[in-house]
Each structure stands twice: as structure tokens, then as C-alpha cells.
Amino acid sequence: NNNIPPPTSDLAKLISKFRAQGLSKREMVALSGAHTIGKARCVNFRGHIYNDSNIDKAYAKSLQDRCPKSGDDNKLSPLDYKTPTKFENNYYKNLVAEKGLLHSDQELFNGVSTDSLVTEYSKNVELFERDFT
């Protein structure tokens, strides 16, 4: 876990962690698409849904209904709420709509240098799949 950025990471920390592994910004954004499948524990996204402003308010509220401000740390939510068991590009569409589950995910689309890559992948599943591979 020493080389994996925590879910509270900002973009600078994400870039640094991936760069330390010899990966580019594009590769970082593409590989983050692995979050199209899987779940996260409440303890890992609680801060994002209660404290951040770069999250869709209705989405945050729906998550708060399942993840209280304290306790229930092990409750799970899908990283991609639309299609949690299908490998495709909805993860990026969620980020564009400010519906990233983890703070670190939403950092990829937050008025920053990686916005254009997220937008590309959200519109072109073939490009995402090629770059992910």
C-alpha cells in the first residue's frame, strides 16, 4: 500500500505517486478507470461526501443516507454507481457529472490539467479501453 495513493489524495499527490512508478499523467488517468469496478468502504469516502464542494449535492445526499458522519466505517458503496460490475467508461462520465465516490477520483476532474483526459475517456470508450490496456 506504500505506492498506492490514499483516497484523500489531491491531484499533485496522485501525479507524484504515479510518476514515481514511471507512469505519465495520461497513464494515471487511464489506470484510474479500474475504479469502474469495485467498491469502497465508507471510511474512505466519508470526507468527500460531507466536506467537499466538488460533488453533486443529490449524489452526496444519497451516499450520506448510507454512510453516516461517524460509524458504519465498513459499509460499502460502488465506485461506479451506474454500472458497478461492468468494465466501461461510466466512471469518467460520473466524474464529469461530479459523481466520483472518492475524493482522489474527483480530483481528476476538478478544473485541472487532467479534465481533458477525463472528458476524452467519457466520450470514447474505445480510447479508454486502448489506453487502459
Mind explaining what this structure looks like?
By secondary structure, the protein is mainly alpha-helical. The chain has a domain at about 10-40 and about 75-130: Peroxidase, domain 2, CATH 1.10.420.10. It is about 45% helix and about 5% strand. It has helices spanning about 10-20, 25-30, 40-50, 55-65, 90-95, 105, 115-125, 125-130, and strands at about 40, 75-80. It is globular and about 40 Å long.
Concise synopsis of the structure shown:
Helix content is 47%, strand content 5%. The longest helix is centred in the middle third of the chain and has 10 residues, at 42-51. The protein is mostly helical and 133 residues long.
Feature tags:
Peroxidase, domain 2, two-stranded antiparallel sheet, 133 residues, mainly alpha
Oligomeric state as shown? single chain
Helix content: 40-55%
Percentage beta strand: under 5%
Number of helices: 8
Q: What is the N-to-C succession of helices and strands?
A: HHEHHEHHHH
Structural class: mainly alpha
Distance between the termini: 22 Å
Q: Look at the structure and give the CATH class of one domain.
A: Mainly Alpha
CATH architecture of one domain: Orthogonal Bundle
Main sheet: which strands, in order across?
1-2
